[in-house]
Design a protein that fits this description.
Keywords: Coiled coil
Number of strands: 7
Strand content: 15-25%
CATH topology of the largest domain: Endonuclease, Chain A
Organism: Fregata magnificens (Magnificent frigatebird)
InterPro entries: MIT_dom, MIT_dom_sf, MIT_domain_contain_protein1, MITD1_C, MITD1_C_sf, MITD1_N
Radius of gyration: 22 Å
Strand order of the largest sheet: 1-7-6-5-2-3-4
Protein name: MITD1 protein
Largest sheet: 7 strands, mixed
CATH architecture of the largest domain: 2-Layer Sandwich
Helix content: 40-55%
CATH class of the largest domain: Alpha Beta
Oligomer: single chain
Number of domains: 2
Structural class: alpha/beta
Order of helices and strands: HHHEHEHEHEEEE
Mean pLDDT: 87
Distance between the termini: 47 Å
């Protein structure tokens, strides 16, 4: 398994898919280290250690390259979430980019609407996203939301829900600024440390749970997802709305 994982790392490396390659190198190195511990043949141990050393050197080089791309504002990572895939909670997706520097967040999503619309969980999803920010490790003080008005009778419920979230966040000394645009189409999330995340479906990429007492109803890591693509960028300056 270790050899196959490293082979995959090399293939991704040659294809310039460095972020994915780094993950495979790290996993492969861990597996090969376990093989070394279990191997009694000293000659084999020596060969494995040599290869592990080479892979570790390459992994460190890739880390430096990725860091340079971040500093230059050229970093781009793409995550493809397959239909019915699990393990993509907001924590898993965002916390890598939420360091202690983050104090301000911008959310653009046209469908943060009433819970009884077709996108019935969009307000709850936004609430869960806010809960993740409140838990840290970031020190968020301000969240800017740009969305569109719900149509027809759902508008008052939409406003009521957003205002309730807004009041609740005040208990945690977080200000939620809400703005509306009739022409918004893009979906993206930006942090003031320079990270920008674009999700094809916005925050609403989770499927409806099978029931209120089904696995995945509470734990979003266990909730099946709709197919979507996540693009992560790093820029030197995050533009404001």
């Amino acid at each position: 398994a270790g050899v196959e994982t490293v082979k995959r790392a090399v293939e991704l490396d040659l294809a310039s898919r460095f972020q994915e390659s780094l993950v495979c190198y790290q996993e492969g190195i861990d597996l090969l280290l376990q093989v070394v511990k279990a191997t009694k043949d000293e000659a084999k141990k020596h060969r494995y250690r040599q290869k592990i050393s080479e892979y570790m050197t390459r992994a460190e080089d890739i880390k430096k390259q990725i860091e340079k791309e971040k500093q230059d504002g050229k970093y781009h990572k793409q995550i493809k979430i397959e239909e019915d895939a699990t393990g993509f909670s907001y924590e898993k997706l965002f916390q890598e980019y939420l360091n202690e520097v983050v104090s301000e967040v911008w959310v653009e999503d046209p469908y943060i609407r009433h819970v009884h619309q077709a996108r019935r969980y969009s307000l709850y999803n936004f609430l869960r996203f806010c809960e993740m920010l409140v838990k840290g490790p970031c020190k968020v003080k301000t969240i800017h939301l740009l969305t569109s008005f719900d149509e027809g009778s759902g508008r008052s419920q939409q406003m009521s829900g957003l205002e309730e979230i807004q009041q609740s966040l005040k208990n945690y000394e977080v200000t939620l600024n809400i703005a509306f645009s009739p022409s918004i189409h893009d979906r993206e999330i930006r942090f003031n440390n320079g990270w920008m995340i674009k999700i094809g479906r916005g925050l609403d990429y989770f499927k409806k749970p099978q029931g209120r007492f089904s696995i995945g109803y509470c734990d979003f890591d266990l909730r099946p997802c709709h197919e979507t693509t996540v693009d992560v960028f790093h820029t030197k300056h995050t533009k404001k709305m």
